[in-house]
Amino acid sequence: MFWIATVLIIIILGFGVVVFVGPPYLPTMRKQINTAFELLDLKEGQTLLELGSGDGRVMLAAAKRGLRVVGIELNLFLVIVSWLVTFRYRKQVRIVWGSYWGAPWPRADGVFTFMLPRYMSRLDERMQKWRPEAPIKLASFAFAIQGREPLEKRDGVYLYEYK
């Protein structure tokens, strides 16, 4: 009984603490994942950076498309789930346990996120400061960046480009 209670407390804390530094876990639906990939238009071998990689479903979809993917996730429980979900594609997938606000972002060809509105201006600032070698596209599910016009919006996914 003690071990069950301990595990439950760890899981609850893992999901609860995240709320203080970023959005809580919410799964992205298959339709929006497909739309994001269509909008980002990444080619096989390119790299996707997922900010808040959650349960690994976006990373798995990216790997199945032949992409390399780096996911940054704060919730240790979800990092473990992601690792299990993407294990078959472990040569293409790297999962970083930590906050995407503090962790250095690796080189990438596109970015995907499902963030809350209160974090979107902070994300916009970080994207502007993070200068990859070439222009980079950001696909944001559900929420727009205030004051920035998206290149396109489809199925609840907003596409932005940073140069």
Helix content: 25-40%
Percentage of residues in strands:
15-25%
User: Taking Cα atoms only, what radius of gyration do you get, to the nearest Å?
Assistant: 16 Å
Order of helices and strands: HHEHEHEEHEEE
Report the span from N to C terminus.
55 Å
Question: Overall 3D geometry?
Answer: globular
The parts where pLDDT drops under 50 for at least 5 residues are: none
Overall mean pLDDT stands at 90
Main pleated-sheet profile: 7 strands, mixed
Q: With helices defined by DSSP (H or I, 4 residues minimum), what is the helix count? A: 5
What is the strand tally?
7
Spatial arrangement of strands, main beta sheet? 3-2-1-4-5-7-6
Structural classification: alpha/beta
Quaternary state of this entry equals: single chain
Question: Can you offer a commentary on this structure?
Answer:
The chain has helices at 2-18, 30-40, 57-64, 76-85, 117-129; strands at 47-51, 68-73, 93-97, 110-113, 136-141, 152-154, 157-162. The radius of gyration is 16 Å and the shape is globular. Strand 2, helix 4 and strand 3 (93-97) form a beta-alpha-beta unit. By secondary structure, it is an alpha/beta fold.
Provide a compact summary of the structure:
This protein is α/β, with parallel strands linked by helices. The protein has helices spanning 2-18, 30-40, 57-64, 76-85, 117-129; strands at residues 47-51, 68-73, 93-97, 110-113, 136-141, 152-154, 157-162. It is globular and about 55 Å long.
What are the key terms here?
163 residues; 7 strands
